[in-house]
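Supplementary Note 3. Input sequence used for the single-chain structure prediction.
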Amino acid sequence: MPGNYTFTFRYASPATSARSVRVETDGVDVSGAIVLAPTGGYQVWADGSSGPLAIAAGNHTIKILIESSGLNLNNIGETGS
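The predicted structure, written as discrete structure tokens, is reproduced below.
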């Protein structure tokens, strides 16, 4: 179903600077950098979200690209409208 989808990332990072991830649909970056602030440790968890991403109807390959080291990713959620 076409619509706007928001991706939420449960993550932890001891880094002193922000980490980032991106969302790709069919090999095309649809999110730009999603900045995830440091949390203070590898087991100190926080949530970060993309803005609404427009995705057309049909079958797609969606990839989450982690752009930097020093990041634990626990799970990814998606909500659509």
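Residues 12 and 44 are 5 Å apart (CA to CA). The first strand starts at residue 3 and ends at 13.
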